[in-house]
Amino acid sequence: MAEYKDKTEKQLTSVSKFLSLVLRHKPDAIGLTLNAEGWASISELIDKAQSQIPLTRELIKQVVSTSDKQRFKISDDGLMIRTNQGHSIKVDLKLSPKQPPTVLYHGTATRFINSIKQEGLKPGQRHHVHLSTDIATATAVGKRYGKVIILEIDAETMYQQGCKFFLSDNNVWLTEHVPPQYLRKPS
Ligand code: HQG
After folding, report:
1. pLDDT the model gives residue 7
2. Percent of the chain at pLDDT exceeding 70
3. Within 13 Å of residue 183, how many CA atoms lie on the same side as its CB?
4. For atom 4 of ligand 1, which residue has the closest CA?
5. Rounded to the nearest whole angstrom, what is the distance from the C-alpha of residue 147 to the centroid of ligand 1?
6. End-to-end CA distance of the chain
7. pTM for the whole structure
8. Residue of 130, 135, 151 best suited for mutating to test ligand 1, as the one with most atoms within 8 Å of CB
9. What is the secondary structure of 82-145 as a DSSP string?
10. What is the third-level CATH fold of 104-184?
11. What separation in Å is there between the alpha carbon of 48 and the centre of ligand 1?
């Protein structure tokens, strides 16, 4: 039973990674087309992924509903899928600007800190800098790159001074750039 569970979880993780890759970064890798808002047809996805990974509608639905970060969304008519954030390719998610909480957090690796102190937080390959409402999430994000350091963002002042914030469907706060003057150590 445990063996069966592990195998299923492994399978779901590899499908999730594959979906993140083609829906955020490389639809071209399988000749998939996303529309301007980042949606792909699920039947086209299944068809075009066939040579690389066997997908079914049920498997995709299971990955979407079990995703720890709710990375994916299926359209109301059930025909399309997209990722909620994290793209490097050009898509317009049509998110409306929103007032952020007073403070937000970003977890990163200690080796990036000198550069961040000079340039602030930049989006890298993605469209936005990703920010969390809690230190635990920021820690998990930062750990991916090495020894973690948490930065607190003075989102209230940024917002008052005209910086735009967006909230993705899976509750990640997004902004284009965090200049260094809004960064501090959490107290
Ligand atoms: C760093 C995952 C040097 C930044 C996660 C980060 C998140 C700088 C890295 C989501 C810098 C970019 C996003 C500067 C920023 N100099 N380094 N000026 N400004 N950086 O992966 O926020 O599992 O693009 O601190 O959980 O780590 O994929 O961003 O370390 O939610 O769904 O440059 O990706 O979600 O890395 O992660 P990333 P991130 P998924």
Report:
1. 61
2. 96
3. 21
4. 108
5. 14
6. 46
7. 0.91
8. 130
9. EESS---S-----PPB-PPPS-EEEEEEGGGHHHHHHH-B--TTSSSEEEBSSHHHHHHHHHTT
10. ADP-ribosylation fold (3.20.170)
11. 29
CATH no., domain 2-83: 1.10.10.970
CA distance 171 to 32: 27
- Could you identify the residue written with the tokens 């961040």? 116
Neighbours of 148 (CB within 10 A): 16
Answer yes or no: is pLDDT of 3 > 70. Answer: no
pLDDT at 94: 95
Close Cβ partners of 14 (under 8 Å, ≥ 6 residues apart)? 53
**Ligand 1, pocket-test mutation among 15, 17, 121, 177, most atoms within 8 A of CB:** 121
Q: pLDDT tens digit string along 155-168?
A: 999 999 999 999 99
In the reported structure, the alpha carbon of residue 129 is separated from the centroid of ligand 1 by a whole-number distance in angstroms of: 7
Q: How far apart are CA 45 and CA 136, in angstroms?
A: 34
The label of the residue with tokens 């973690």 reads 148
* Domain residue limits, the chain: 2-83, 104-184
